Amino acid sequence: MKILQVFSLISTLLATSQVPDLHIPNQIHLHRPDLHIYNQIHFLRPLSGSHGHDIPGVSCSSWRLAVETNNIIGWTIVPEECVNYVGHYMLGQHYRNDSKVVTDAALDHAKSMNLTGDGKDIWVFDVDETTLSNLPYYASNGFGSTPYNSTAFNAWVLEGKAPALPESLKLYKSLLSLGIKVVFLTGRPEDQRNVTVANLKEVGYHTWEKLILKNSTYYSGSTAVVYKSKERKKLEENGYRIIGNIGDQWSDLLGTNTGNRTFKLPDPMYYIS
Ligand SMILES: *[C@@H]1O[C@H](CO)[C@@H](O)[C@H](O)[C@H]1NC(C)=O
Ligand SMILES: *[C@@H]1O[C@H](CO)[C@@H](O)[C@H](O)[C@H]1NC(C)=O
Ligand SMILES: *[C@@H]1O[C@H](CO)[C@@H](O)[C@H](O)[C@H]1NC(C)=O
Ligand SMILES: *[C@@H]1O[C@H](CO)[C@@H](O)[C@H](O)[C@H]1NC(C)=O
Ligand SMILES: *[C@@H]1O[C@H](CO)[C@@H](O)[C@H](O)[C@H]1NC(C)=O
Ligand SMILES: *[C@@H]1O[C@H](CO)[C@@H](O)[C@H](O)[C@H]1NC(C)=O
Ligand SMILES: [Mg+2]
């Protein structure tokens, strides 16, 4: 269905394009190599479609891909023209479907590993936008269109009302049933421990090996990459084997002691280094 829609979009563009000096066919015959060149003209000019009008969605999906692949880094807000796109992406089925592809792959990986059963096989979960979802907060705060506001965000966290990301909760339960223990490793500060524990339990995360929150004194000024790498190193020094590691930020997954495999959940709303 999706592919048909894309093909029909391209075919409409080809049929109505006003690009001069080109023979524009009415139909696409994909077996004809010369016509692939006509298609490319639109890929090279993603913002201008028929009669020079913008093609809705094209540039924002490219932006999102670049963000998810860690090609665009260090951004503070979602580009204004993509805020609406991000909102629809997050609230619609697309985000959920993308998350499911990631957690399904994660479970396949876990099943492929030879587990020892000695209680030292662990899976590292990030918390925000991985285990818990702050979508209710972001939906009423512009989907990342304004810079991070710690006052407002911490007030939301302290309500303890974040729902589970359903795909992650399912993965969590499957991993437990395989005999893998779970470690939550979050950038939330130590003083949010109690509310985080209560929130996790409330939405279905009933057990874990460790919940590691950030010691803001010790890690003052450290990036998430440094903090999380050091904490994972400590885990390995204590004999744990990190079978897998899942998070919505590349800073959850880069650095050292990253585990046997890493899994990146979508997050086009904010960036943490
Ligand atoms: C999400 O997945 C369902 C089931 O596979 C599919 O029917 C639907 O079209 C998908 N939606 C999006 C936006 O990806
Ligand atoms: C698990 O063990 C089997 C049998 O020893 C071996 O063939 C396989 O490659 C191992 N898989 C991994 C992921 O280590
Ligand atoms: C941050 O959020 C607080 C609480 O909602 C609000 O009072 C404050 O104005 C916000 N700061 C900025 C810079 O928007
Ligand atoms: C957190 O919970 C523990 C154990 O229930 C309690 O002793 C402690 O006072 C609580 N801390 C805060 C900051 O509420
Ligand atoms: C945090 O780190 C500081 C400085 O290293 C240390 O004194 C303190 O005990 C730590 N706090 C916790 C809760 O681990
Ligand atoms: C998993 O990671 C550990 C530690 O890096 C490594 O020793 C082990 O060979 C890895 N296992 C697989 C199957 O890749
Ligand atoms: Mg996160």
From TrEMBL:
Keyword Lipoprotein among record annotations: no
Function: May function as somatic storage protein during early seedling development.
Protein species of origin: Acer saccharum (Sugar maple)
Gene Ontology MF term list: acid phosphatase activity; nutrient reservoir activity
InterPro entries reported for this sequence: Acid_phosphat_B-like, Acid_phosphatase_pln, APS1/VSP, HAD-like_sf, HAD_sf
Protein name: Acid phosphatase
Top-level taxonomic group: Eukaryota
Signal peptide (UniProt feature, chain positions): 1-15
